[in-house]
Amino acid sequence: MNRQAKVIMIQGTMSGAGKSLITAGLCRIFKQDGFRVCPFKSQNMALNSFVTKEGLELGRAQAVQAEAAGIEPSVLMNPILLKPTSDTGSQVIVAGRVRGNMSAREYFSYKKTLIPDILNAYHQLEQEYEIIVVEGAGSPAEINLNQQDIVNMGLAELLDAPVLLTGDIDRGGVFAQLAGTVMLLKPEEKARIQGMIINKFRGDQSILDPGVEMIQQITKIPVVGVVPYMQVDIEEEDSMTTRFAASNPFGLLELAVIRLPHISNFTDFAVLEGRTYVNLYYVTSPTQLGEPDMILLPGTKNTLGDLRWLRESGLEAAICRAKEKGCVVFGICGGYQMLGRRISDPEQMEEGGSMRGMELLPSVTTLTKNKTRTQVQGHLETLSGVLEELSGMALEGYEIHMGVSEVFPEEGVSAMAEITTHTGPKQEVSVDGCCKENVYGTYIHGIFDGDGIASALFAALAKKKGVSLAPVCEPSRRAYKETQYNLLADTLRSHLDMESIYRIMEGERRK
Fold this sequence. Notes:
This protein has 511 residues and is of the alpha/beta class. It has 15 helices and 29 strands.
């Protein structure tokens, strides 16, 4: 292949092996070394997504990797995005736009027709960048799927890409993971693996070294790094995240996130984590809710189904009781829709029919075929209740939703934000969301990321609770992310054989 860019591909022994993080770290390393570098993932399945300036949608992981590379995210970096709507079906997004909903079987038969879309995106990136770091998905040894593969070894063949295979030692059996994966590959696929990475190691590496020697002898493939379990705060995109199990029992402020069955864009809450005085935790039942200062209802890919689950689990009633006691309730996107009076689905975008909402906000939502995808900036309006001190603060974020919400005017109700959208032939100014008393709803993802908003939120909650927070000088969200990307790169440099990785990209192959 007469390529313009050098390429390296990261595959894993399983989902959650750390492919996305290693891809992001390599993007930052190559950027630091002076190269124009970008990420690429042909097909991503995730409910966390991002909207580009053009109003196109891609997986959140590729947006994070682009940020690590110091470039603007592009839909070319993730030409196919699958957003599960049920256990057996997904919304299929191609080149940033919705292609339709498909069952797993339908998509399995359809996906090879998307190879031209994949190659077109990749070849465009080749013209602009010197290095492309490609991420696989799941495992290349899923032998029931390999004939239709467009994201692991099938993609590596299309791109003529050398592969680094990553295994997760934290979950145990890493040598079996690596050896078993290699054993199940065809000879030509095995030949593409130029190195192996043992990821998430804890402890004394000298104890691991004999195993490293043996796995190299068994597979005839060199281990190019043993990467420690990294304490870096970088956004994750899927439900395998460890964030859902995290908590800080010593936090003065309690923030409960409802872990909906089809939760999406939970990265909205990353900025609220990591402070010693905050305990942010995820709940799936009323018994886990406790007595939080704030309840957060996140986005979802199945608003009606998750609203039904909320009702049947008893969490809806528990949230309403907490609200009556003065707890702040804040919904984003699907969470905002749930807080209204009713949600209708006349075009059967989800389940069809109509369902009563939680009736905490005077809004009615109609799900539609047209999907809103736009970046926004603006400011918070005059807010009511506990968060009134946030009024007027500048914000920026993005919207991704299939639905239109109408807010009915009544006493004590105001808009959440005035925003300017950035897609289409011209900018448009509009209002977003609404609030009433201590209940707030918005379509804006990333609303807490604006400079000072998270700190002002905590100050408002602390004031209501009657506690004092020690003053802290905090960097902007953007500056904080930069420190984490650099920490990630520094750690990988210390534990990967970067000289070997560069030689592999230059075309040197193991014998």
